[in-house]
Design a protein that fits this description.
Pfam families: DUF7010. The protein contains 8 helices and no strands. The chain is mainly alpha-helical and 184 residues long.
């Protein structure tokens, strides 16, 4: 059975708690990187975000399931391929961000904010939610502002953590509201 775009988006929202679990897992990875950066090790904070980033999807599945979602989309959902493609784009961008970080560590975090912000713009289509347009654009604006301020790695990583934590909470609330409306 072929799904319409709106049915596929609803399946993604149902399966992944509207993506809130992923935003939360990402915020946790940024928080760990910020904590490491605060110890004074910019190189280790870069590796903390890279390694933490690799764990975002599995951690988001656990969080989704803990919140009562399936932690997966249905087989054959055409948006699953778009999610996969955006993951490859993220992975392909990481060497560039890492190279920038070798020149100046804070540039790594700013580049990652831009890359992740761009990925969230794709999530607007995956989930059918304008929230992801706002999140993607806010992350891009934060990255640009941090560049103009020549922010230190700890500040840049903390800004990423704080931004994603705020949006994770907003997304959680929106998802719960949609569940309540569906019950009515």
């Amino acid at each position: 059975m072929d799904q319409s775009i709106s049915e596929a988006q609803a399946d993604m929202r149902d399966g992944y708690y509207s993506g809130a679990a992923g935003i939360l897992a990402s915020a946790l990875a940024w928080s760990i990187a910020a904590g490491v950066a605060l110890t004074g090790s910019a190189e280790r904070s870069i590796w903390a975000l890279l390694l933490g980033g690799m764990l975002i999807f599995p951690v988001s599945i656990l969080i989704s399931k803990a919140l009562g979602a399936r932690g997966t989309h249905t087989k054959g959902n055409p948006l699953g391929q778009l999610a996969g493609a955006s993951t490859f784009w993220l992975v392909f961008s990481m060497p560039l961000a890492y190279g920038l970080g070798q020149q100046k560590p804070s540039w790594f975090f700013m580049a990652m904010l831009l890359v992740i912000g761009g990925r969230y713009l794709v999530f607007a289509t995956l989930y059918g939610m304008r929230l992801y347009w706002v999140l993607g654009l806010v992350l891009a604006a934060v990255a640009i502002a941090l560049a103009f301020l020549a922010a230190a790695p700890a500040i840049a990583a903390s800004a990423g953590a704080a931004t994603e934590m705020v949006f994770a909470i907003i997304c959680l609330v929106q998802h719960r509201q949609s569940l309540r409306q569906a019950v009515r």
